[in-house]
Amino acid sequence: MYIFLCEDSPEGIFTGIYDAWDSRYGHKNIHLKIEKEIDNYELFSTYLTVIPDPEKSEKVVRTLQKKFGMEVWSSLYEAVICNGQPLNRKHQMDKADAIYKTIVFGLSLPDGRRLMDYLGEPYIHQVFLLSRSSFNEAHHLLGFLRFQELKSGVLFARIHPKNDILSLLAEHFCDRLPQENFIIYDAEHNKAALHKKGSTYVLTDASDINPSFIKDYSSMELEYQRLWKKFFESIAVEARKNQNLQNQNILKRFQKDVVEFQ
After folding, report:
1. Can you give the pLDDT at residue 239?
2. What pairs with residue 150 in β-bridges?
3. With contact defined as beta carbons under 8 Å apart, do 226 and 148 qualify?
4. In 3D, which of 96, 78, 118, 86 has the Cα closest to residue 32?
5. pLDDT tens string 176-201
6. Contact at 8 Å (CB) between 15 and 56?
7. Residues 127 and 98 sit within 8 Å (Cβ to Cβ)
8. Within its chain, how far is the Cα of 253 from the centroid?
9. What values do phi and psi take at 35, rounded to 5?
10. Reduced to 3 states, what is the DSSP secondary structure of residue 184?
């Protein structure tokens, strides 16, 4: 058995898919695994380390979009950026391997656009669960993400997502706020999406972001925060307070980034 060890990132996994396919070892003889998730090495298996390669990754992306269409491509990408392993009690497998086997299966179909209809296949079901996890979290944050105006005029938002969904959020807000300079900071993964008005966004490492910069709010922003908190408190009815329902509507892990809970 040949086991390709790849980085847990879109570029790493797509490069792993390229290398595994290009190896010609036979799909039944190949497993694709996330390198950091390897606990014990199997006997009689050959381990191959995958070096992320932007060119190889881009070739895989173009092929998937062409063969499967954008709807299936979105599901595959959402599965790639999911950091967890949603429970599939009947069949539990490595994320990268499930995605690889799903793609192999899809390329054998006469119509790849129907790939996600085959949920009876355990690896496709796993991809579906992973995709749903990322999609649901992104959907929540599209409603709860809050921008705050800095003194520089830049709109700034901080999030703490479980999954690496920053690109999904950035693409959405580029479309909604094309004439605004904004930053979405993923404090959980130390990444940031930077958008310059009239342009597209770029993702960058934010592990050394300046804490004082992202808290340097404009005077108008501070006034609106004060007014909003006052409004939030004034409409609350103490006798009808339901903390459990509130936590269901806006998850506790989102509340740390929402002004009225601070």
Report:
1. 84
2. 217
3. no
4. 96
5. 999 999 999 999 999 999 999 999 99
6. yes
7. yes
8. 16
9. -60, -45
10. strand
Percentage of the chain surpassing pLDDT 70?
A: 95
Yes or no: say if 123 and 105 are a contact pair by the CB < 8 Å rule: yes
Question: How do strand 191-195 and strand 182-186 relate by DSSP bridges?
Answer: antiparallel
Tokens coding 35: 């390198």
The helix or strand, by DSSP H or E, that contains position 156, with its residue range, turns out to be strand 155-159
Cα dihedral across residues 156, 160, 166, 172: positive or negative: negative
The dihedrals phi and psi of 50, each to the nearest 5 degrees, come to: -95, 125
CB-CB neighbours of 42 under 10 Å:
11
Quote the pLDDT of residue 6.
94
Separation between Cα atoms, residue 187 and residue 170, nearest integer Å: 15
pTM (predicted TM-score): 0.88
Unique residue bearing structure tokens 């006798």: 239
Q: Is-contact 217 262, C-beta < 8 A?
A: no
pLDDT tens digits for range 86-138: 555 555 578 999 999 999 999 999 999 999 999 999 999 999 999 999 999 99
How many contiguous H segments (helices) and E segments (strands) does the chain have? Answer: 8, 8
Q: What is the dihedral of CA 49, 52, 58, 64, to 10 degrees?
A: 40
The tokens describing 209, both together, are 């972001």
Rg (CA), the chain: 21
Integer Cα distance of 10 and 97 in angstroms: 14
DSSP bridge partners of 201:
195
